[in-house]
């Protein structure tokens, strides 16, 4: 999985990952149709996860449904109940800017033995909550990194790199009124060698392209898929045309 993602990034592509929030899915057949469209238009992976009200049985039902599409299914965990061997990998993430040790290392220690038993591949990720932060900031008790505090974002990203994490997820929060700013992405990429994932409030091709051109390796969208799948497809198509020098 890691090699799959790295090879796509090394080709100079900016990837799009589709976030499916099980709590927001009330009709599996329409989810299938939307997922098929997302796959056919070039999304590179499905992320499955949510902050509140996600049952592992619903998670498994969605992972089964997504099995028809030959792209990775990666768990985007908000807690240790969201682990399933039906997934291809899990963002093994630490909320580095949390005030609660549970989200920095507690949940990870509790989850690790089960993940080992299930032989689920892990993608070592620093989850950095920025600006608005949304539900994730509240639940994860994050001390959010202000939108304009690039130095702080760089410090956390370098710390993540030096601790061996391969991905940094700059998270503005699901449905955020403002996304992470391109300047923050640009400087984090300039000073660190991590793969940068950006999500939270991205709801237009223009904004997705700005973040891609600033250096984002992976763009995640969730709400726009729930609200306006055709707009999500236009985001996927616009990112598909981006070629960055590596
Ligand atoms: C590694 C393991 C097993 C657990 C990690 C646990 C950690 C660090 C969680 C971080 C804190 C947290 C609450 C993350 C939420 C991640 C997530 C699924 C965000 C997207 O949630 P949405 O469901 O889209 O948000 P809304 O409910 O607001 O739409
Ligand atoms: O739902 P949106 O706003 O696209 O955010 C995606 C993801 O970053 C949420 O954790
Ligand atoms: Mg959401």
UniProtKB/TrEMBL annotation:
Q: Where in the cell is it found?
A: Cytoplasm
Which GO biological process annotations does it have?
A: glycerophospholipid biosynthetic process
One GO MF annotation is: heptaprenylglyceryl phosphate synthase activity
Q: Does the keyword DNA-binding apply?
A: no
Annotated residues for binding of sn-glycerol 1-phosphate? 169-175, 200-201, 222-223
Q: What is its main location?
A: cytoplasm
Q: Which GO terms describe its cellular component?
A: cytoplasm
Q: Which reaction does it catalyse?
A: sn-glycerol 1-phosphate + (2E,6E,10E)-geranylgeranyl diphosphate = sn-3-O-(geranylgeranyl)glycerol 1-phosphate + diphosphate
Report the pathway entry: Membrane lipid metabolism; glycerophospholipid metabolism
- Which annotated residues bind Mg(2+)? 21, 51
Q: What does this protein do?
A: Prenyltransferase that catalyzes the transfer of the geranylgeranyl moiety of geranylgeranyl diphosphate (GGPP) to the C3 hydroxyl of sn-glycerol-1-phosphate (G1P). This reaction is the first ether-bond-formation step in the biosynthesis of archaeal membrane lipids.
User: Which Gene3D superfamilies does the record match to this protein?
Assistant: FMN-linked oxidoreductases (3.20.20.390)
Q: Which UniProt keywords apply?
A: Cytoplasm, Lipid biosynthesis, Lipid metabolism, Magnesium, Metal-binding, Phospholipid biosynthesis, Phospholipid metabolism, Transferase
**NCBIfam families in the record, alphabetically?**
GGGP, GGGP-family, PRK04169.1-2, PRK04169.1-6
**InterPro entries, sorted:** GGGP/HepGP_synthase_I, GGGP/HepGP_synthase_sf, GGGP_HepGP_synthase, GGGP_synth
Q: Which metal ions or organic cofactors does this protein require, according to UniProt?
A: Mg(2+)
Protein name per UniProt: Geranylgeranylglyceryl phosphate synthase
Q: What is its EC number?
A: 2.5.1.41
Pfam families (alphabetical): PcrB
Family, similarity comment: Belongs to the GGGP/HepGP synthase family. Group II subfamily.
